[in-house]
Amino acid sequence: MAKELWKGNEAIAEAAIRAGCDCFFGYPITPQNEIPEYMSLHMPQHGKVFVQAESEVAAINMVYGAAAAGKRAMTSSSSPGISLKQEGISYIAGAELPAVIINMSRGGPGLGTIQASQADYFQSTRGGGNGDYRTMVLAPQSIQEAVDLVQDAFDLADKYRNPVLILADGMIGQMMEPIEWKQRPSVELPPKDWAATGRHGREKNNFVTSLRIDAPDCELHNVHIQSKYDRMAEEELRYETIGCDGQEPEIILASYGTTARICWSAINRLERKYGIKAGLFRPITLFPFPYDQLHQIASRPGVKAVISVEMSQGQMVDDVKLAVNGAAPVHFFGRAGGSIPTVDEVADFAASVVKGGAGK
Amino acid sequence: MAAKVIFDRDRCKGCELCVDACPVHILALEESTNRKGYHPAGCTDTSKCIGCASCARICPDSVISVYRD
Amino acid sequence: MKPVYVKSKGLQDTELHYCPGCSHGIVHKLIAETLEELNIIDTSVLICPVGCGVFAGNYLACDAVEAAHGRAPAVATGIKRTCPDQPVFTYQGDGDLASIGIAEIVHAAMRGEKFTTIFINNGIYGMTGGQMAPTTLIGQKATTAPLGRQKELHGEPIRMCEMLSSLGGLVYAERVCVADVPHIIKAKRAIKKAFTKQLNNEGFTFVEVLAACPTNWAMTTRKANEWVLGPMAEYYPLGVIKEV
């Protein structure tokens, strides 16, 4: 199929429509505005629902309602707006509803900046709202991958009855790249017999709720939810490696999304400028995190260190340390607050680590 | 006109709304307690019941059913 | 003998957890009877609040969804927009609707969402133990207003029916109470009218019920209903506030 040039945000919106998204509930915030704008025009054309909510809080609760009725529901926002959605995301996880949430993250804290950032890693991968829950987190590095992951996200949300978060950033939302609309495999998904659709002759009413007032019952529910995350870790891990297989890298850059692209170039720079062989480990699922896979790579002979490269003050590095678990020293390099690391900055830092003397 | 008022005794919380609502004043709380530990409402003189169902309408707990010829 | 009054099929067999004399049970029954009479038990979806009504999905026989505090109108919007043929209604208390969820109810009314809201106004936070609500009357004591609500400190109580009636999307707002049988009959009529208007796709419909909370008001049920018919109905006038 021919490639088409698409802007990230619009491509994500179109991908959702192609994935059978029944309804989109949005609220304006930069840098994701093209998603609700695209949806407001195109969803009605497909006979689907678009509502501009009064707030991010309302939008995520509209998602909750539509998901409770068995519909494929989505919302999008950017960091401060995603913070507001955490209430609803916790309820969605607690009530075991499928939903897709897009975070075109920006620099914080607070109002921060509208420039791209990866400072929402903790919030995304640790649950974000109250209670013992996680969202599945998918981190694309390109528009093509974003499009593919958005479509997968709806299936994964339905499979696990759990919110799935696409964690990208303003860079991916705003840039244009050629993409290909691929034929989607049809996936067999469990029936939504739990949905509040009206009883229509069903013996008992369905009551979609996250309330488990008796503590033993609530604990059982938590254990059940945890078992889904364990299953995700077994069945859904996604990651990519570059320069790791058969090339005996001295240093591994661990990075996701936009910064992984910078690391890709930095690997070439390291080879040419310093004669250092470097590899890239790029997690695509940030939750569940591919701990064992990173550990195996970090354990290979010849690997002198692992560097977590992020647009933050050091967040994914916690998971990198858990993964590497002493197999090699772990360092961190990051730019924060909407600043983007350059290829040279990353390469120079990595070279200084290899030569010794770089701080953690 | 014969009427019958039936109480689901163990569901009554003794709130007395029915006692106040009865236009012929034949409802009262019992001396004894029910399963919940409340003094449940009952009818003191069924023969006077007019089957108006005021008691049933105001009962928050759907304790009361009313029948009439 | 023929039944004059039996429990509605719109209710499940579950025993209610509400305190003795609480109005919630009466309003549940009126909704249940309405669903039964309009033959929509099997198609309706109830959105429960946070507050004493949180378990309403265990009591009413229709399908139900439990919302976060105040968000029931947003949840209802998500359902009604994607399932426009389904009757949808929210059941919300005054803390839920008039405080934390004020944005959601105002905007649902503004958009003219085609669902019905049953608003239980008892002037107090019941579930959490009697704290001051936006609807607590001036002078009325609450656990967070131990000296009583004061205009200078807390402002004057919100009249939700009147406030929402300024919005074009709202087609019907009526305030009722369930303090005695004649008022219960009127309340039933209002609830049924609201659902009927929803079934006719007319717009957003709103019924405010002045309700008694004898436990948190520290009153007997008799005194509580006198309070509803007296000071409450004086500040919150009963009747149709808007009908298009």
Describe this structure in words.
The complex is a heterotrimer of chains A (360), B (69) and C (244). With 360 residues, chain A is an alpha/beta fold. Chain A contains twelve helices and 15 strands. In chain A, the strands form three sheets. A seven-stranded mixed β-sheet of chain A has the order 3-2-4-5-7-6-13, with helices on both faces. In chain A, strands 10-12-11-14-15 form a five-stranded mixed β-sheet, sandwiched between helices. In chain A, strands 1-8 form a two-stranded antiparallel ribbon. In chain A, helix 1 runs parallel beside helix 2 (34-45) and helix 3 (56-68) packs parallel to helix 4 (79-94). The N and C termini of chain A lie far apart (46 Å). The model of chain A has no long low-confidence stretch (mean pLDDT 96). Chain B is of the alpha+beta class and 69 residues long. Chain B has a two-stranded antiparallel ribbon with strand order 1-4. The radius of gyration of chain B is 11 Å and the shape is globular. By secondary structure, chain C is α/β, with parallel strands linked by helices. Chain C has a single domain (23-237), classed as Thiamin diphosphate (ThDP)-binding fold, Pyr/PP domains (Rossmann fold). Chain C is built from nine helices and ten strands. In chain C, the strands form two sheets. In chain C, strands 3-2-4-5-9-8-10 form a seven-stranded mixed β-sheet, sandwiched between helices. A two-stranded antiparallel sheet of chain C has the order 6-7. The longest helix of chain C has 19 residues, at 181-199. Chain C is globular, with a radius of gyration of 17 Å. Classes of the chains: A alpha/beta (360), B alpha+beta (69), C alpha/beta (244). Chain A binds chain C through residues 22-23, 25, 49, 51, 53-55, 57-59, 61-69, 71, 73, 87-88, 91, 95, 196-201, 205-211, and chain C through 12, 41-45, 47-48, 54-55, 57-58, 60-68, 71, 74-79, 81-83, 86, 103-104, 106-107, 111.
Question: What are the SSEs and their pairings?
Answer:
The complex is a heterotrimer of chains A (360), B (69) and C (244).
Chain A: E1 4-7, H1 8-18, E2 23-26, H2 34-45, E3 49-52, H3 56-68, E4 73-77, H4 79-94, E5 99-105, H5 121-125, E6 136-138, H6 143-160, E7 163-169, H7 170-174, E8 176-179, E9 207-208, H8 215-235, E10 239-242, E11 251-254, H9 257-274, E12 278-283, E13 285-287, H10 291-298, E14 305-310, H11 316-324, E15 330-334, H12 343-355
Helix pairs in contact in A: 1-2, 1-6, 3-4, 9-12, 10-11
Chain B: E1 3-7, H1 17-21, E2 27-29, E3 41-43, H2 54-58, E4 64-68
Antiparallel strand pairs in B: 1-4, 2-3
Chain C: E1 2-5, H1 23-37, E2 45-48, E3 63-66, H2 72-82, E4 88-93, H3 94-100, H4 102-111, E5 116-121, E6 124-125, E7 131-132, H5 151-154, H6 160-165, E8 170-177, H7 181-199, E9 204-210, H8 214-217, H9 221-235, E10 239-243
Parallel strand pairs in C: 2-3, 2-4, 4-5, 5-9, 8-9
Antiparallel strand pairs in C: 6-7, 8-10
Helix pairs in contact in C: 1-7, 3-4
